[in-house]
Amino acid sequence: MWLSSRCTQFKLSSEEIVLNDEDLLTLILCRLPYRKIKCFKCVSKKWLYLMTSPQFSRLLCNLLPPLRTCGIFIQGPIDLRRQPCPNEVYFVPFDDPNTPSPFKTTAFAHDPFDPERIRILASCNGLLLCSTCIIASLTAYREQITTYVYNPSTNKLDVIPRHLPSKEVNYRNLAFDPSNSPHYKVIAFVTTSRSDSFSIGDFHVYSSQIGTWTLSVQSFCCPKGMYLDRGVYWHGCIYYLSEFDFTGSTVFDGLYFNVDEGRLGTFPRPPIDANLPLTGSYFGQSEDHLHFVGFFPSTTSLGVYELKSDCSEWFIKYLVDLAPISKAFPQMTKHKACYFGGFTFAFDVLALIRRENFQEDSFLVLEIPGKVIRYNLVDASLKEIWDFAVDFGVEKVDSWGFGRFDVWQYIEALSCV
C-alpha cells in the first residue's frame, strides 16, 4: 500500500515538474501543428502567456521547416457587368490532388460594405492580403475600403486600420518572413500629386507588431510604366519591374523598397531588349530565389532568369523549349494569340516553384487554354493539374478569355495572424 502510494506520488510529481518548467513546456508547445496552437492558447492563462511571448516566437522561427509552396489560389477576373462580382477562390494543389482547399470564398471577411466584392491583392510566404474590390474603390467609396491580412493555415483574419482616408492609397504590398519574425508588414503607396507621365507619393508601412502606420523617410516619383501593385518581397525588400514594352516608359532599372529602412534603391532589369514584344512573362520568388521568366515571339524558348543574391546581375537558370509542350497540348497552337501582328503560343506563366530544399525537382506552372499544367524543369515531364471547365464551366471561361486569372501561391505558415 505504501509502495503504491509512493509510485502514484512519483508519477504526479513528474507531471508537475514538466508543467512547472516553463522552458521545457515552451519547447513542447513549439512542436504543435500550426492549426493546434490557437486552440492550446485557451488551455490556461499560463499557456497563453508562454505562447504569446517573444521567446516562443523566436523558437518557432528557428524550428520552422523550409517554406514549401503547396499549391495556388485562382480567382476569376473582375467583371463589371456582373453584380455582385464573383468572390470564388479555387485551389490547385501541387502534391496530393485530393487536398481540400483551405477556404472557398472571400466572404470569410464579413465586410460590412460589400462582402461579395473582396479580392486577394497579394500573397507572401503563407499570408494573403485582401481588400474591398477595386470596382468599389472609386473616389466616392475610397473612405470605405477595408484591407485584411488572412492566414489560410490558421483561418485567422486581421483587419488593417484605415489609413489616411482622405488620401489616394493606390498600391499595397505584403512583407512577411516567418524565419525572421512571426509579424508582418503592409506597404501602401499614397499618391499626393500626379500627371500624365508620373505620380508623386509616399510609402507608408503598417506593422502588425506595433499596430500602427508609419511614414517612410523617402518620397517617391513613380514614373510611367511602373506598377507598384506588382511587387515581389525578397530579402527584406519589395522589388518592382516596369513594363518592358510600355510605350513612353522612362524606367531603365528595377526599383526596390527596403521595408525596414524605408528607402529606395535600384537593381538591374533582366537582360532583355525593352523594345522587343514580350508575352507570357512572370516575376516572382521561390525558396529564396528571385526569378523573371520571359518568352519572345521570334523563338520557341522560354528563358528563366535568376537574380544574384547581391542584386548585381541576372543569369539564365533554365531554358525551356515550348515546341514539345505544344505537341503534347495542341490547344497551345490551335488557339494562338495574336501579338503585334505576329503569332505566338497561347500560354501564361502562373508560377515557378523551386523544390531544392526538399530534394525534389523544380517546376513551372503554366496556363494553356482551358487547363493548368506542370512542367518539370529537370526531366521535362508534363502533367495536367487542373481543368478550368470542371470548376468554372466552359461558358464562364470562354467569356473571361485567356490569361486573365489572378493567381497566388499558398504556403502553410504560422504567424501572429
From TrEMBL:
Please report the name of this protein according to its UniProt entry.
Answer: F-box domain-containing protein
Which PANTHER family does the UniProt record give? F-BOX DOMAIN-CONTAINING PROTEIN (PTHR35546:SF115), F-BOX PROTEIN INTERACTION DOMAIN PROTEIN-RELATED (PTHR35546)
Q: Which organism is it from?
A: Daucus carota subsp. sativus
Q: Which residues form the F-box associated beta-propeller type domain?
A: 105-248
The record ties this protein, via Pfam families, to: F-box (PF00646), FBA_1 (PF07734)
**Superkingdom of this protein's organism:** Eukaryota
- Domain F-box, residue spans: 22-56
Q: Which SUPFAM superfamilies match?
A: F-box domain (SSF81383)
By its UniProt entry, which InterPro entries does this protein fall under?
At3g26010-like (IPR055290), F-box-assoc_dom_typ1 (IPR006527), F-box-like_dom_sf (IPR036047), F-box_dom (IPR001810)
Q: Which residues form the signal peptide?
A: none
